[in-house]
Amino acid sequence: MDAKLAAAGSLAARMAIIAGAVDGRIAFSSSLGIEDQAILDAIAGTDRSNAEFDVFTLQTGRLFPETEETLARSEERYGLPIRAVKPDAKEVLELLSQDGIFGFRHSLENRKRCCEIRKVHPLNKSLAGAAAWITGIRREQSGNRSNMPFAEWDEGHELIKINPLADWSADELDAYIADHDVPVNPLHDQGFPSIGCQPCTRAVQPGEDPRAGRWWWENEDKKECGLHVSSITQTQPQDQKEPQPA
Ligand code: SF4
């Protein structure tokens, strides 16, 4: 699938390949950021009669109001339900009693624990049993992502992880959004290229790394929330329609 996605000329063509190749539930965890909005638009325009797309968002409880509004506008525009996946209430209560409401700023360990409870655990639950997972990762977003393939076997989640925007530049993304009149989070126009939880995201200056506004108090090489950290191999499971990844 990796080679087919790489050769496809448009996002619509890539989404059609995914819909036709994946046998089973295709999970799409949307952050409501600009990349994921382009993917949502492409899913909405894809023939889904023989494909099982499962669109959801991680409702961490700390999102910007603008992100919630983007979710509502997107559901209205595309008529696609976007499931709100919430963290375990008991885990959140224990976290708050142990670390406090802004405990994630006190240490890297605290921050990772908060991301684990509010994002990683709910994501893992939602990915369990899925055949594929679509993400909005682009290689130019950060050095950690510069080698992302279009499709790879994710050993940790036991599914194919698919990055249909892997080779897109920011200009290509902006052009798609404009051409398709895709609803986007208004924070993007206020200097937020990457939007996560409200207390952990700030605007960036022109020329700054797009992810510089995420957990800005931490070292650059620690800036992942754990959603895209897992064991990856090039082995394809036998129950996919594609015989082998390229
Ligand atoms: S981004 Fe911040 S508030 Fe959101 S889950 Fe991670 S540490 Fe917690």
Total E-strand runs: 7
CATH architecture: 3-Layer(aba) Sandwich
Number of helices: 7
Low-confidence stretches: 233-246
Cα-atom radius of gyration: 17 Å
Q: What is the H-and-E element order? A: HHEHEHEHHEEEHE
Enter the CATH topology name.
Rossmann fold
Return the domain count.
1
Q: What ligand species are in this complex?
A: iron/sulfur cluster
Global outline: globular
Question: What's the pLDDT, averaged over the residues?
Answer: 89
Q: Strand order, biggest sheet?
A: 3-2-1-4-6-5-7
- CATH level-1 class: Alpha Beta
Topology:
Layout: H1 2-7, H2 11-21, E1 25-29, H3 34-44, E2 52-58, H4 65-78, E3 83-85, H5 89-99, H6 108-127, E4 132-134, E5 151-154, E6 159-162, H7 170-179, E7 232-233
Parallel strand pairs: 1-2, 1-4, 2-3, 4-6
Antiparallel strand pairs: 5-6, 5-7
Helix pairs in contact: 3-7, 5-6
The structure holds iron/sulfur cluster (SF4).
Residues 60, 62, 104, 111, 114-115, 118-119, 196-197, 199-200, 225 line the site of iron/sulfur cluster.
